[in-house]
Every structure is written in C-alpha cells, then in structure tokens.
C-alpha cells in the first residue's frame, strides 16, 4: 500500500478535513443544509427524514443543483441490511419527439440546454415524498419547514457566489423570472446580503402542508404548466400529475473483498462501476502499482474506455428499452473486456467499440450529493440534479421553482456529443415519458453485514470515475477517507478519446509517460467533483468528509 502523496502544487494536501462522531453524520455541499439534516437526526429522525430535510434546504441555498424542479436517485440501506434503490429521474413530456432538438446542419440546437424545451418533467418531490412515506419517521411537515425559513431569507456567502460565474449570469439574464431572484439589481447578490425567494417559500409551504400534491397539482403545477405554454415548452398538467418514481433492484457486485451497491438504469452509474471492477479483476491488483504512476493510470484509462463504450451503447431507461443488464453485469464479460488491454499501448476508442465481446445470453459538475448515516445505522446516498448549473436557467413564474435542462441527457441526436461530451446511441434517444440516462452514482460499500462507506458526487460523466477513485483509493491503497476524497483525479469516458487530469494533479514525467503509450492527455482548467462521503470503522466510529473542491461541509455527533 502506498502513502498518500501527490504533487505539492495541487491545492488540497493529504490528511485535511474529516469530522468524526458515533451517533450520526451528514455530508452535503452546503453548511446550512448539513446542519438542518443533523438537527433532524438529533430529534430522533432517521436517515430518510434527514435526506428530505437536506434536499429541501439545498433547493433553496444551493440552487445551481439542489432542486424541486429536477430529478435524482436514492440508495437506502436499512438497519437490518436491506438495500433499496429509488429512481426519481425526470421524464420526457408526452409531446416530446426524437428529432425535437435537431438542427439543419446535422447537429443539435441550444434548445436542449437552455429555456423551456430543455425542461423534463421533474421527479425530485415525488421521489422524496414516496421515500418518506415508505421509510420516514418524523412528520413530513417538520422536514420541509426549515427550507421555508431559508427561502424567506438566508445570508449569501462566497460558496453561493462561486455558482454564478459570468456565463451562468448571462443565461439567467435571458429570463426575467430568474434574474429577478438571482441577480437583484441586475448583478449577483453581494456577500453578506440576504437572498429572499418569496415565491419559493410559498411553494414550499404548499409542499409542507399538502405533500407531493402541493407540487404536482394546484397552484405550483399550474404555474409550471403556464410557464411552459408561455415559452413554447412541452410540459402539461397531465405530465405533472402522471409522474411516478420507481423502486428498482440495486446493482450489486464485489470488489477487493467488499460488496458495492449502486444505482441501476436509468442511471448508468452502478453498471459502469461494475464493468470497471470486473475488468480490473482480470488484471494484477491496482494496489501493486505505484499510485498515479504510468502503469496505474494506463490501466484505469483502458478499463474506463471499455466500460464507457458499453455504457454509451447499451444503457437507457429499462422501462422503454431492452437493456442487456445481466450480460453487462456478468463478471466474465467484464473480465473478458479487461483481458483485451495491452499493458504497453493505449487502445483507440474506435477499436474498443468495434471489438466488444458478445454478451452471454440474457435479455451533468452540475449535480449535488448528500450522504447520511443515522444512530440506528440506516444510511442514504442521495444524488440530485438540474443537469447543468441552474438547469435551463428558467424559473417558472410565480413558483420560485428553477427548472432542469435534463432533456440534454438524452441522445438528443445519436452520435452527436451532449453538454458533457458523451456520445451516446439510439437506446437513449428522446421518447415521450422516457427517463434519460444518467451518470449519477450514489453508492454504498459493505463488508459482510457491516456498512463501511456511503459515497457519491456530482460531475456529469466524471461522477462514475470520481466515485470509483474514492473507493479504489481506500480499498486498493488503504487510504483514509479524507485522503481518498482530496486526492487528484483523472477521467476517461471513451469519447472524446482522451485522459483528463485535474490542474496540478500529475507530474510532467507521468504525463509524458502516458503520452508515450499513446494516450491523449489533457489537463483541464478546473477541478471536478464534489464528493460527500461517510466511512464507518469496525469499532463504530463515523468519519464524514466533504470534498474541499467546492466548500461543502460534513457534520457529525
């Protein structure tokens, strides 16, 4: 096992940042939301109760990604060891068509990423409400109430302003309903000022008092439908009232003596993690390599190249497309992919896509995550999104609800890259009522009957590789949670055919060594990911860690 050591000019040193406790912990991207969740646990609420409270708070204080107007995934582990996966991914409106975003030049229009047509039917509220009805303990109204107070006004801090760079401000300015809230006086609010969202507070009161019906019917639903009609969007009252969250069987697979649990389609996260783990099983253990040496990174790049090739070709909404899930999750299939890796030479993404073995017989840094563990041992890994920062940039008039642009997560035109550069196939094409493929990867790690890790991250396609690197840093290299989260990251997603590196994350000699093997290496201008995680030790101690990259906060007691 190697020591946690990386370039000294990387801004996040090893060994900094965890909090510890024994009764409960919450890690989220915002201090206010984390503290709301911890207070719920202290009052006797369970991890699902705390998740609802955190999610509602994030919709107010973390509007770039926290939401009422988007969708996401919940992975819940009960104290008796049962694991439950809930899919409340957004869906295409009934009036959606496969070519609705096609442009005359063979590409796609900007309508899939900004404005009314980019909006899919939101699933967040229905999902949270259904999870609470099944597993919650405290009254629903108690869990929504803190968000009402925050919507009435909270103090703006630097973390909030970081979510408003010039290109986001320009998008919000296109919609008066949005700029009136987030750009008071035409500019982002000043640090220390109070941001008030009275329409959102009223919407949250309806949620508090009426449950999910306070969103999918009545004034809030009418406001969303009216906004759609005003701007040429497609969502109707029938789309909203007909939305349903779905409970699915979690993806489960083994890696390095542990069991990983993650999300099945319509998320691609769990399957792509499993493909990664199974491919690596055919190769010498990663922990025998020098961490972030050329051999280590070559192997990761080649495994991900293959895993994402399969992801992009096969995965989609399983309720609308026949997904060969058993074949993709077969350890022999993944191992066969791993055995095609040349240890001395990078593959091309074209040859990897064309050279996939046959299946055995069988049938976007723009998200947010919270990890929660309660005193009874219930755990929730929860990832939610508007897709890109501030979603469609559109607030539905009179509701305060910022709406998603998740339609871009479909193959808006198969073969054409989406916002995150993913080139996807026909399986994920736009269709009425369909859930678009996601990369969200809420994940749990168990050892026997014991929970060991709750983890997830935002970041578009990088979510999957980020979660894997945190897990691998701990299981392959024996690192602490804090070091596993802070460490520099790399990413490969099949196409575009390149290995991305965080700024300052790799020494020049390693980059040269990778290029000598045929890898196209690109140092990104910004870091990615915002891991929120909780590790549990054998003696019952909780260690909670918020990623230092975006200023999230973990709390515990």
TrEMBL record:
Residues covered by region (Disordered): 1-25, 344-368
The reaction(s) this protein catalyses: glutathione + H2O = L-cysteinylglycine + L-glutamate; an S-substituted glutathione + H2O = an S-substituted L-cysteinylglycine + L-glutamate; an N-terminal (5-L-glutamyl)-[peptide] + an alpha-amino acid = 5-L-glutamyl amino acid + an N-terminal L-alpha-aminoacyl-[peptide]
GO molecular-function term, one example from the UniProt record: leukotriene C4 gamma-glutamyl transferase activity
Pathway noted in the entry: Sulfur metabolism; glutathione metabolism
Pfam families: G_glu_transpept
Post-translational modification: Cleaved by autocatalysis into a large and a small subunit.
InterPro entries tied to this protein: GGT_bact, GGT_lsub, GGT_peptidase, GGT_ssub_C, Ntn_hydrolases_N
Superkingdom of the source species: Bacteria
Keywords: Acyltransferase, Glutathione biosynthesis, Hydrolase, Transferase, Zymogen
Family matches, as SUPFAM superfamilies: N-terminal nucleophile aminohydrolases (Ntn hydrolases)
Gene3D superfamilies: 1.10.246.130, 3.60.20.40
This protein's record includes keyword Hydrolase: yes
Protein family per UniProt: Belongs to the gamma-glutamyltransferase family.
Protein name in the entry: Glutathione hydrolase proenzyme
Organism: Gaopeijia maritima
């Amino acid at each position: 096992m190697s020591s946690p050591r990386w370039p000294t000019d990387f801004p996040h040193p090893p060994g900094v940042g965890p909090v510890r406790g024994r009764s409960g912990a919450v890690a989220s991207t915002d201090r206010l939301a984390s503290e709301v969740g911890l207070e719920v646990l202290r009052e006797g609420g369970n991890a699902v109760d705390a998740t609802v409270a955190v999610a509602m708070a994030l919709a107010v204080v973390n509007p770039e990604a926290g939401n009422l107007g988007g969708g996401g995934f919940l992975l819940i582990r009960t104290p008796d060891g049962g694991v439950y996966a809930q899919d409340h991914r957004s869906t295409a409106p009934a009036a959606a068509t496969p070519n609705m975003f096609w442009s005359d030049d063979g590409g796609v229009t900007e309508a899939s990423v900004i404005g009314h047509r980019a909006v899919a039917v939101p699933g967040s509220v229905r999902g949270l409400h259904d999870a609470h009805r099944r597993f919650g303990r405290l009254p629903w109204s108690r869990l929504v109430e803190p968000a009402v107070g925050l919507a009435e006004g909270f103090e703006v801090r630097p973390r909030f302003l970081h979510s408003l760079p010039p290109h986001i401000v320009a998008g919000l300015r296109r919609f008066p309903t949005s700029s009136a809230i987030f750009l008071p006086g035409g500019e982002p609010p000043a640090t220390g000022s109070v941001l008030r969202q009275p329409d959102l507070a009223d919407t949250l009161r309806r949620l508090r008092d009426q449950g999910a019906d306070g969103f999918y019917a009545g004034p809030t639903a009418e406001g969303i439908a009216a906004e759609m009609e005003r701007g040429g969007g497609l969502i109707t009252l029938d789309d909203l009232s007909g939305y349903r969250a779905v409970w699915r069987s979690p993806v489960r697979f083994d890696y390095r003596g542990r069991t990983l649990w993650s999300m099945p389609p319509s998320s691609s996260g769990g399957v792509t993690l499993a493909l990664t783990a199974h491919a690596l099983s055919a190769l010498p253990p990663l922990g025998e390599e020098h961490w972030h040496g050329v051999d280590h990174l070559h192997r990761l790049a080649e495994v991900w190249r293959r895993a994402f090739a399969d992801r992009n070709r096969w995965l989609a909404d399983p309720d609308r497309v026949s997904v060969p899930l058993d074949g993709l999750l077969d350890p022999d299939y993944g191992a066969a992919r791993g055995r095609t890796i040349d240890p001395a030479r990078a593959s091309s993404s074209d040859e990897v896509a064309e050279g996939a073995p046959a299946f055995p017989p069988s049938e976007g840094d723009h998200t947010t995550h919270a990890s929660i563990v309660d005193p009874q041992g219930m755990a929730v890994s929860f990832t939610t999104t508007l897709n890109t920062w501030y979603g469609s940039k559109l607030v539905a008039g009179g509701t305060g609800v910022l709406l998603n642009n998740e339609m871009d997560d479909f193959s808006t035109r198969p073969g054409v890259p989406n916002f995150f550069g993913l080139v996807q196939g026909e399986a994920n094409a736009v269709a009425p009522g369909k859930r678009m493929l996601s990369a969200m990867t809420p994940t749990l790690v168990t050892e026997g009957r014991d929970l060991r890790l709750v983890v997830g991250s935002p970041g578009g396609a990088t979510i999957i590789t980020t979660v894997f690197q945190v897990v691998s840093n701990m299981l392959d290299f024996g690192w602490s949670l804090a070091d596993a989260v802070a460490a520099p990251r790399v990413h490969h997603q099949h196409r575009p055919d390149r290995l991305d590196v965080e700024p300052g994350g790799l020494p020049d000699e390693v980059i040269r060594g990778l290029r000598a093997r045929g890898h196209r290496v690109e140092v990104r201008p910004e870091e990615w990911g915002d891991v929120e995680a909780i590790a549990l030790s054998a003696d019952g101690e909780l260690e909670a860690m918020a990623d230092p990259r975006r200023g999230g906060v973990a709390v515990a007691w």
